Amino acid sequence: MKISALMTSAGINIGICVLLWSLYSVLRKQPAFVRVYFGRRIAEENRLLREAFILERFVPSTGWIVKALQCTEEELLAAAGLDAVAFNRMLVFSIRIFSLAAILCLFGILPVHYFGRKMHRLEISSEQLHMFTVGNVEVQSRWLWVHSIVLYIISGVACFLLYVEYGHIARLRLLHLKRATLNPGQFTVLVRGIPKTANESCSSDVDDFFTKYHASSYLFHQVVYKAGKVQKIMTGAKKACGMSGPSTDTTLDQRCKAVTYPCCLCGASSDSFQLLPTDEVAKNIDKKFWNYLQECAAAFVFFKTRYGALVASEALQTSNPTKWVTDLAPEPDDVYWSNIWLPYKQLWIRRIATVLGSLVFLVLFVVPVAFIQGLSQLDQLQKKLPFLDGLLKKPYMSQIITGYLPSVILLLFLYTVSPIMILFSTMEGPTSHSERKKSACSKVLHFYIWNVFFVSLASGAVINQLNPSSSTKDIAVRLAHVIPEQTTFFITYVLTSGWASLSSELMQLFGLIYNFIIKYVLRMKEDIAFVPTFPYHTEIPKVMLFGLLGFSCSVLAPLILPFLLVYFFLGYVVYRNQLLNVYRMRYDSGGLYWPIVHNTVIFSLVLTQVICFGVFGLKESPVAAGFTIPPIFFILSFHQYCRTRFLPLFKTFPSQDLIDLDREDQRSGRMEHIHHGLRSAYRQFPDNEDIKLEQILTVGNDEDQDEGCSSGERNGEETCKEQEPRRDLCHSTLKGLPVSRLRDSVRSIALLWTAEKRSGDRALIN
Amino acid sequence: MKISALMTSAGINIGICVLLWSLYSVLRKQPAFVRVYFGRRIAEENRLLREAFILERFVPSTGWIVKALQCTEEELLAAAGLDAVAFNRMLVFSIRIFSLAAILCLFGILPVHYFGRKMHRLEISSEQLHMFTVGNVEVQSRWLWVHSIVLYIISGVACFLLYVEYGHIARLRLLHLKRATLNPGQFTVLVRGIPKTANESCSSDVDDFFTKYHASSYLFHQVVYKAGKVQKIMTGAKKACGMSGPSTDTTLDQRCKAVTYPCCLCGASSDSFQLLPTDEVAKNIDKKFWNYLQECAAAFVFFKTRYGALVASEALQTSNPTKWVTDLAPEPDDVYWSNIWLPYKQLWIRRIATVLGSLVFLVLFVVPVAFIQGLSQLDQLQKKLPFLDGLLKKPYMSQIITGYLPSVILLLFLYTVSPIMILFSTMEGPTSHSERKKSACSKVLHFYIWNVFFVSLASGAVINQLNPSSSTKDIAVRLAHVIPEQTTFFITYVLTSGWASLSSELMQLFGLIYNFIIKYVLRMKEDIAFVPTFPYHTEIPKVMLFGLLGFSCSVLAPLILPFLLVYFFLGYVVYRNQLLNVYRMRYDSGGLYWPIVHNTVIFSLVLTQVICFGVFGLKESPVAAGFTIPPIFFILSFHQYCRTRFLPLFKTFPSQDLIDLDREDQRSGRMEHIHHGLRSAYRQFPDNEDIKLEQILTVGNDEDQDEGCSSGERNGEETCKEQEPRRDLCHSTLKGLPVSRLRDSVRSIALLWTAEKRSGDRALIN
């Protein structure tokens, strides 16, 4: 590819970027799209952002960039959680290391490459890109020491920065732990694989087990119901109700007032549900609900102290490791309810099936990638398929096809990856949303590294028809052959997949279209509860792939670095803006993405050295090749050090801190309040039915276990107030009842419950 | 190689075996060698095995075989520990699966191979071995379904047997845990990485930390001293003393009586130590000892209950994972004292250095293996080195060189492996003997699989000059090419390394020679305390390598199976005999070798399928090749299942069982006794000095922490009695003192100690 073709591609992308960014800066000021661009702030900060009509609204502006840059880490942490901070640090790390790499490589290595061979020089614009890669350096060149030194500096500084960042995230994680004092997940253990006993109910089994073996710290428990069918019915009901939900469009702070909204038949066709007035809906669902509740497969067990919960979660409970499996419970909002009742014994086979599925997908995806590579290696293709000649004779056509089309097609194919991977991760059976996303993140990352990086290289090699003698040599040499050749593709990939996709992320094209359809085509009410969470599972792999490209190409084809650097700068602005304004933090993994990032960077660094080893070997410079070996060991040793020094903090919590927290809470008397809050923290059926169930459970438990703690009435009122914000979909049913009547009904069912409970729970449940 | 060459090799080996076994059955009846052949029984069962001179002593007999076979698993467990049982199960598993494989392959597959091609048949003895391998089957043969079915049966049965065995060992491990009620390791946690504080002594740091964070279960602690120089001095002193040690040759049960043995200058030259009368030796060492004791780097912390210790050992203590690192302590006899004070921060770098070292060793070892392969491929070698012609013209010579010499040389080279690997494992810094041996075991196993199996194959392939086109194909095809070719070498390897080394193991050649030199050349007294422990780190890899050979060759070259089966039968008899009579169980890992065995078998099974995939591919039978894919996934799924079902039991202990044990001990009042025993369980300096130190520590602690528990006197007496058997090297010094004087001196030092302790421990220590 010539420089001019590259410039064509860059031009197209810069044009698209400028257009979309300007459009964004206008659209974000339009009240109609306020839900698209300020979803988080509306949902969490409850601001009214409606403004009057002024001309300024239609002039592109840059104020939002300044705002995004000015936001401190503290603010980001408060607004978007620790994961967002980890993501932000990843971008900061990339900017730092690639700024250094760009300076070193552009001023140190690029001249060595360009003047590597004595030859006739063309005008710079029609110079082949190949001129700027290591391919242009003569065999046995003495200038390879420059490459070695730059490699050493980049590896060393990258390790240093990684160390600093790892420490920083670990510190933040501990701080996060200490600050989240009212976090029910810290007191709760999720028990799975509860063995079935013939005589007693599952609930009393759990009670017996934990009073016997964890008597000193056990508080109470809450059983999870196997709710396959119930879940389906509830979802159907939710959908139906949701359409006739509250129309709190402009009045956002009317929550907690007992207002009855009329329920009307809406335009959507619904075969399975005939919509009835809300009371009947409730009754109808209620009946089915009680019919379908099945015996439990898991339970949440609550402990008196954080340390007690930690100890119970870490120990192997019985001599059969697939029974009474304990883990620290995820946060209430993080719980992935539809997986939580899965039999623990199934999980291993699900995991295998998922791995198999991902592998098959990985392999099948080679086809489109190879096809794309065929396009980018047009001159080779032309030789084999001569009928393309006519089309490709036109120079402009050829430039577009080699420079722009391949990466656009790849980008479109890649859009299918993350939904499929998240499907796989769901099948795997994680118990929390964040775990599911994290698992999808690693899957997508593996996919990107394998399919975009390696397969691109491999197919490039196949099309280039490398001489067969090299095929017996090792992989490093093969990579070394192909990397400089493939740089052009990678540069265009950075331009399209990087720059353009950042712009589309900023524009929120999908959100915009969805909003438009909902509002103007279907003429439905906007769903204020639906604010998306940040797609870490697609964005982290994307950024990490660019990091890998950057490291592996830096020394060999430094021309990629300025494009990458621009990408990271843009990404820094865009992602901060999106995290602050668009996405909502419903759950947080507590920085667990960082170890993935760390490992990927280490992998990239090692791979870079291996590739350079091959390249220097090809250039017949054994000294330079030999110099790439020590850094590999240094990097791996550094990795091992980080594993011992930081990784344990991301697997568990230090007991010292937990005990200190427990003691402080006990001293200050906050503990009772926390214990009280635990009773209503986890709710399997977050709609009306489960409120009744919850109340029943709570009152029942109160009477059973700690009578003195709180009366049913106070409890009823408090949960009603506290959990109001979450129940925004279908709460008309409950709100229709006056609070006093609600309390009466709850109390009567509670009495029934406690009476029944003593004669065995299952009688009532079935 | 021809059948006759194989028979030559087999003949030589059978001859050697018969000779050595007969020799053994005679030698074992000679009183002079009783220490060599009955080390364990003398040391542990204190039997007197001296018999009168009768002719029967010089007649070979087979009674010992019957005895070895009759011994039940219970007896083996009692005599040699759980590791021995695991080892025994490994042999049983091998016998079972290879009996089945031998029947199936010899009657099902061998005829298919032999009649695979229509050709002129020679006499069976001059038939090439190649005729019996899959190489003789025609391309696109329809008979490959026999191979597929046999493979399926072998894989399925192997997995079933593995499952049964894993479950069995896991059950035994739990039983072992429950039976070992007085096991101090269960109550003890080894703390490393204790941070240095400026003000206080390390001991009070430990005390503060555990009383603060584990107050409910913390009992007391014992500091480990950094004893680099001390250790050296002690070792020197021990050596010097040991030579003049007690001459309890015939009177084995004179222990615990206060007899003074005269100390005399012995024949060995000693530059660093001038041997003095024992009192002065003691004083001398004493002085140096106190001078060199340095501040602690680690500590043993004792807990009230097993569960308390488990909880403390599993939790991450502080926010810095390299500080206050807790692990369950090894058994007192298992502690590897010279590593225990190593700074925890060093360990990661030691681990890396060891891995690097092993890798380098692994690679360098390729040279001798390749050389050996050159010998076994003599006809190929002959073509290249024509000057060998004269030597190799003699048919008998050629048969010995191809059939016998290569594996003998390999065997000799392999003798260097295990000492080097155990050296690496020591450098790695394990805190217990069993851990060190386990780590060496995996290293040796990797080494064997890589160097004996893969490099043998690879060098065979290189010498065979495989056609270059195959080099671009994948590894399975390469293996497929070579395996049938290399079978002859593997068969001779089984004969020499297997049969002959078993015989030499039975004969205890090294022990015999050592014993002879000590007794008749150096004329020294026999060292009754020195009874070797079973070398699991060399024997397990050996047996597993034969397993790998068996699985991978079974279908392709079934002729190896009868030889292997004989090896396993012989091994079963020999190892049981040795475990019962020769080796002593000083420490026991509690069956931790089994997961290694399991993983290796799984690896072997998968590799077998991969090789068969390649072979069937070469035979252009896509159906048969396709049929090898599903078992791979099945085996890996099975492995994953075993990991979830059994592996956790080998990593930690189930808390339910521990709590039950604790409760029973508390109910029966045994707990106090156990706590009392803990005080003297771990002793860093197991000779005279440390007894004083121990007493001081114990008395001091008694007065500090639980005055009512036991008086210093009773304690003194008890430890003296209990620990007598261990102190057999240099106890003349202490024994010289009457018990009353000893007590007085201990008490006076104890008073000093407690007085000093309050003003800071270090004052006394320095």
From TrEMBL, chains A, B:
Residues 5-164 form the CSC1/OSCA1-like N-terminal transmembrane domain. The chain crosses the membrane at residues 6-27, 97-116, 143-164, 352-376, 396-424, 445-463, 543-572, 592-616, 623-641. Keywords: Ion channel, Ion transport, Membrane, Transmembrane, Transmembrane helix, Transport. It holds the Pfam family RSN1_TM. InterPro entries: Csc1-like, CSC1/OSCA1-like_7TM, CSC1/OSCA1-like_cyt, CSC1/OSCA1-like_N. Belongs to the CSC1 (TC 1.A.17) family. This is CSC1-like protein RXW8. It comes from Triticum turgidum subsp. durum.
